[in-house]
Every structure is written in C-alpha cells, then in structure tokens.
Amino acid sequence: MANMSKRFAFDAIAGTYDETFTSVCIASLMRQAVWRRADAAFPPGSSILELNCGTGEDAVHLAMRGVHVLATDISAEMLRVTSEKVAARGVSKLVETAKVGWEDLDALPEQCFDGALSDFGGLNCVHDLASIAAPLARRLKPGSPVLLCVMGPLALWEWLWFGLRLQPSKAFRRLRRNPQWRGIPLRYPSSSALARAFSRSFRVRRVSAIGILLPPCLESISQRYPRVIAALNRWERRLETVPPLPWLADHYLLELERL
Predict the structure, then answer these.
(1) Between 20 and 30 A from 188 (CA), which of 142, 169, 208, 210?
(2) Cα–chain-centroid distance for residue 87?
C-alpha cells in the first residue's frame, strides 16, 4: 500500500516536475552542486546505480560524461519522462531504466555497480533506513562511492522565511511527529542518523550543505538579483562543509564509501 501511494504521488507530478523544480534557478544551482561531487566520484566508464531518478536529469548529466547509469524509480511516469529525455539527448546506449524502489533492491544483481546516487530527497520517503543499507551494499563493489542528497530535520531558511510570514505550520513542518506529503509518510533524518543507519556497510567520507545560503525559498527573488544569487552560490560552495551549515541546510549531501 505504501509503495502504491508513492507511485501515484510521483506519477501525478512527473509531467510538471522539470518545469516547477528542475529548470528553476536555485534548484538548478543546487543540482549543479551535487553534480560537482558526482563528477569527482564517478569517472567516465564507471557503472552507477541511481535510485529515485525522477525525470532523469542526473542520469543524462552522468551519461554525457561517459558514465553508465541504471536509472531506477518507483514511478512509471517518472521513468517514461526519463526515457524520453535520454533518447532526446542521444545517450540511450549509456542509460537503462528499471522500475525499482528503495525497498526493491534485492531484485537487482549483486556487486555489479561502481557507485550509487540518490538525489533530492528520495530517501525521505523511506521509513526504515537501516533495512535498505545492506541490500544497497550488496549491489556495490567494495570501495564504491555513494552520494545521498537528503532533506534534514533542521531548515534554517524555512524557519526564517515562513516564520516572518506567520506561517508556523510551514516553518516547522519537518519537526512534526508524523509529517506527510500527498499521503506519503516522510522522515527527515539528520546526517548523523543516516550515517548510523548505514554504518555496518559504509563509512562517511564527507557531508556538505545543499541550499543553506541559497535555499529554494529565495527563488522568488532570483530573477531580480542575479548577481546576489551568484555570489551566494559561490560562498555556499566554499563553505559547504563548515559546521553547522550541513545540519541547517535545505538538503545535505552525505558521501559514503562501501566497506
């Protein structure tokens, strides 16, 4: 039932996701920050497992660099958009798609991937994080890098932005006892909690802030002040690993290594 709810929820937004998120200024800069680390972690010729691939933007980027990607998602509509985008960008030989969710990893062959990527909150829809660590590890070769971009429980800009607008339900939505989105139960693990859940099979290499000086709630001013946005983006990249910024950002990027 939970997986069915996820499918329906993400099927419903697949057609508009690129317009409302992928292509907007600040979300694009946040994605580019993840790409900087993905490009360093996944060399050309490597084979990568992407979980919750969405509309395939990350898969196409990696494929354009010569990386082989198995792009997986629980949503058939997201995979349809991904397949169309992959074909349009001419990288069909490097990207395959499969309808696989985090809870379905045992359907994939073991130790055949050189790394894994999960971008922009797919793990926030997983209830039991510890239960997926071992299945993921079995799909990866020893030493493989894993990049997990996750929404944390503390979001400083949400508190300020919505708090000043007297919208406490939005300001502190991540701290609710049982948060939901479109009927899907959500979890907002801290980077330390996520690292502990994966600690039997992975070691932490790095954690960085994605959206601390440049969070999505500033999108409304991004077109009016492009120089300010560019400056904030530069400084965020310079300071992205400095505590406590990763703990207070819209997302954090946890980089792991398979033991």
Answers:
(1) 142
(2) 23
